[in-house]
Amino acid sequence: MKVLLTNIEEVFREAAARWTLLAYFFLSSLFILIFALAVNLDIVDGALAGAKLFGKNVDFGGDSVSLDTMVLGFETGFSGFLYLVGTFLSIFATAHLVPRLQEKGTIDLYLSRPIGRVHLLLSRYIGGLVLAAANITYLIGSIWLIVIWKTQIVHPRFLLGGLVILFTISVLLAFAFLVGVITSSTAVSIMTTYGIFFFSAILVLHEKIEAAVSVEWHATLVNALYWIFPKTAQMGQAVVALVRGELQAERLSEGITFATFGSTALFGVSCLILASWLFHRKEF
Fold first, then answer.
1. Contact partners, residue 110, CB within 8 Å, separation at least 6
2. How far apart are CA 112 and CA 74, in angstroms?
3. Which of 33, 174, 188, 249 is buried most, with the most CB atoms less than 10 Å from its CB?
4. Full-model pTM
């Protein structure tokens, strides 16, 4: 445990020394500030009298909308936005952990310690997750508090959306670690991880793609790729559905199932196991 805590501390120190931590905090603070300035609600006697988004009046089409419904709508929309922002910032801030570890001099210092290679890699992975979790907590927690401050309405489900975001980050970070072990390149780790994110999102249309191809084995390949890669699009849908409180049968039928989460988790675990095995056998 002491070794793990030490490595987590070194991840934060390294992020601070490379200005990554400062940039991470600054960008997150910028998004929080934009949210605080963008949403203005006119509340009279506990009722919603009007609303503005980025300085423009929100038109409800003449229908009366309760304050609770309005707040839930804002939180739902921003939860999807935070899914993208939180995931992208986290990968950008942590993808360097393995390439940096394998630099000449750095790896020699780490391997001189009484710690196995697999434990070293996994402790760096946990450190990266802790760093990402701290930022997600800061992002979502701050926006949640701003909503409470402006409306006095509390929706705890907004915080639960952060757990799905962190789950997605943990899977993508495992893939970034695998690429980092193989290539020792931060740039390649970031590009390929973002590429997997978008490629997997496209595969949400796998049924339509399978119906469009004329060769049977092409359809089989598309279906296999869908189940192999993480379900990044469905994870975003799950965040929004969880915040809205609609993770019910109708949502489950649209692709958000236990198999969706299970196959995504299996991808991350497989990447982490393969990365650990390759790192253990690598010559330094």
1. 101, 120
2. 52
3. 174
4. 0.86
